[in-house]
Structure formats: structure tokens, C-alpha cells
Write the C-alpha cells for this entry.
Amino acid sequence: MKIYKEIVFLLQKNNYICTYQNIKINFMYTSKIKGTGYYVPENIITNEDLTKLMDTTDEWIKERTGIEQRRHATKGKDTTTNMGVRAAQMAIENAKIDKSEIDFLIFATLSPDYYFPGCGVLAQKELNLNTIGALDIRNQCSGFVYALSVADQFIKTGMYKNILVIGAEIQSPALDMTTRGRNVSVIFGDGAGAVVLSRSDNNKQGILSSHLHSEGVHAEELAMISPGVTNKWVPELIKENNPDDTSYYPYMNGQFVFKNAVVRFSEVIMEGLKTNNLTKEDINLLIPHQANLRISQFIQQKFQLTDSQVFNNIQKYGNTTAASIPIALAEAVEQGRIKENDLVVLAAFGSGFTWGSVIIRW
């Protein structure tokens, strides 16, 4: 018995799980979203604005994507980092903690300010945080879900108490704003969202589980190939300067992506529910990555959810990639759409292909 007590003490100290006489004892912490925040640029680009740049119409864009407007960054004012910092400051304020209590930072983006280093350390500098660790996540549309999952593991195992998770994107400068690129360019927008994920002793609330997947065989179906060291070296870029080289613009096989997205969204949501012995009827609010309103509507119909059970804001922001879920989450909280003990499901699918879900008891 003395040895058993010593083992239990060590397990408790390190927040692990042990089993004694077929009773499972969980000494791990729970991670809970303590604060949310978001920021979007002031520059509103409507569908009508795009008709002046390319052969398109407001009706064409809304019919295919549901998007009515999006935000574009202003050169010299907005950067991926400073937008993320603004969202983070709001999240920290809403979490009611001092920034000195943040002990790790995770930054998800596909559009960093520099080729290297990543935005994580730049955000650490701008927020004037302690010399905490800063991690960058490059999983595009699934970036925030991946980042939240990583943060959850750090907190559950007791390594950190408060982690700042940021998703931010400035995509507009890289878009082909001509008729040639309209299938992609009308979809994407700029913005940032953030959460503070904190340690909790209440194992009935917080992140219940997260589920991550990838399928790299389809990597080129949604990609921006250049610049990349495998096909374009810097001296070649400078020498060629070929205006017809479209590898510098995002490419998307729209129909193929859509077909895969609706399947993977459904699978990963059900995976999360089944893991926690829940059903689709238990969902209080589904916040999908804002890729395309038609995808969200397809999932809503498949799961037989009401409009009040699904949160969409792609109509006014477009697809902000890694920023879309934290922006939507922050707005849902701001609008009172999420209440204590609600079951909140986050789900994303995107380039890679990567996809994932996070199941939260609020």
C-alpha cells in the first residue's frame, strides 16, 4: 500500500492517469477557453467592387459562395502579426488575466509577414510578453483547429497554464484580382482571431477532445506552389519575372475540394461526437471553418441542424483561412450565441488536405 500511495503521488504530481482495482483515475487537467477576440481590417470590398476588376457579378459570387463582402488589408497599416496582436489583446482582456500570465503562444497562418521567422515571435515582441515559447502552425484552413489541439495537450499535461492561440491572415496581396483568378480571388479575405486557453480543474467543461487528419496525396489540388525552393530559386525569380507564371497565385480545384470537404467535415464531426458518447442532437452550436456557405449549408442539412445551431459569418468576411474559426467563435460569444454548458463543435477542412474537429463543453 505504501508503494501504491507513492506511485499515486507521483502520478498526481505529474498530472497523469492511473488505474487501481479497475478504477481509472485521471490526474490530468482540463483546458478551457477563457477569452476570445478578433480583428478585421477597415477596408470593405463588396462584390460590386470586384465587378470593376474582373468579369463577375454579385449574383454569381453569392450563388456559388454565399459571400457578399470581405475585408482587405491596407498596405502600410495592416500586417498579419499586428492584426493577430489586436485580436490577442481583446482575448486577453476578455479572459481577465494579465498578459504576464501567458506562458506560451501559438500562431497559425499561411501568410506570415516574413519567409522566416514566423509570426509567433513577432507577436511575442509586439505584445511585450516574457521570453515564452512561440510556435508557428502551417496548416492553412485547419490551422486554428490544429493550434488549439496542440495547446490543449500542453495544458492537459500540466506544462502550461495559459496559452495564447492566434489565427491571422493577410491573403489579399497574393490574389490574382483579374478574370483569370476570379474563382479563387472572390472567396478569400483578411482578418485575425484569438483565444486564451487556460487550465481548469473542472473536467466537465472545456475541450473534451480534438481530432486531426491529413491526406497529402491531394496537396496540389489547393495550393500556392511558388515561391518554393523545390521549383523556384531566388536568382531565377529575379531573372525570369514572368507575368504569365501563375504559380505565384493560389490554385484551387473547386469542385474536387468541395466534394472532399463535405465528406471530411461530416466524418470528423461524427468522430468527435462518438468519442464523447454524444449525438448530433447534443450540438448547441456548430462553428465550421468559413470556406464556403454552400459547404456549411450542406453539413447543416445533413446533420439536420437549425439555423440557430450553426454559426456563419462568411457573408461579410469571406474565407479568412486560419482566422475564420476564431473570428466566428469570438463573434458568437459576443452575440450571446454560446451559453455555459453548451456543446460547441469546431470543424475545419482545407489545403493539405488537412481537416479536424474540436469538441467543447462551454
